């Protein structure tokens, strides 16, 4: 089968986020990002939606990498900027929690 059009993949990814079908979201966004000649706005949407799925799967570093790459391409994207802040806070909280766990183990 041929790959569906980029707009269909992005819409399906958006729906996937709503029903917590995160693996499907990642797959659809991967397909968008592998497509030649995609508009920068579509790339930003794919990065944002994949970051959402990765965040929901607790893959914070990968989610942040998607946000950073999206912002490299479309620096003024407000959704990516806001989500980047959310992910950074989650990373700080995760790192702090890990630090406390290790302190108890070795302290």
Topology:
Elements: H1 6-18, H2 22-34, H3 40-56, H4 60-73, H5 78-106
Structure description:
The protein is an all-alpha fold and 107 residues long. 80% of the residues lie in helices and 0% in strands. The protein contains 5 helices and no strands. It has helices at residues 6-18, 22-34, 40-56, 60-73, 78-106. Helix 2 (22-34) packs antiparallel against helix 3 (40-56). The N and C termini lie far apart (57 Å). The mean pLDDT is 94.
Cα-atom radius of gyration: 16 Å
How would a textbook summarize the main sheet?
none
Shape: elongated
Coarse structural class: mainly alpha
Distance between the termini: 57 Å
- The helix fraction, in percent, is over 70%
Number of helices: 5
User: Roughly what is the average pLDDT, rounded to an integer?
Assistant: 94
Instruction: Encode the helix/strand succession as letters.
Output: HHHHH
Q: Give the uncertain stretches in residue-range form.
A: none
Strand content: under 5%
Number of strands: 0
What keywords describe this structure?
single chain, about 110 residues, mainly alpha, 5 helices, about 80% helix, elongated
In short:
The chain has 107 residues and is mainly alpha-helical. It contains five helices and no strands.
């Amino acid at each position: 089968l041929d790959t569906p059009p980029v707009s269909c993949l992005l819409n399906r990814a958006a729906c996937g986020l709503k029903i917590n079908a995160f693996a499907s979201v990642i797959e659809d966004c991967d397909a968008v990002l592998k497509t030649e000649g995609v508009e920068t706005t579509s790339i930003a949407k794919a990065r944002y939606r994949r970051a959402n799925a990765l965040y929901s799967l607790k893959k914070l570093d990968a989610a942040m990498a998607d946000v950073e790459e999206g912002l490299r391409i479309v620096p003024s994207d407000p959704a990516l900027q806001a989500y980047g802040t959310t992910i950074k806070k989650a990373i700080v909280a995760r790192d702090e929690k890990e630090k406390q766990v290790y302190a108890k183990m070795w302290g």
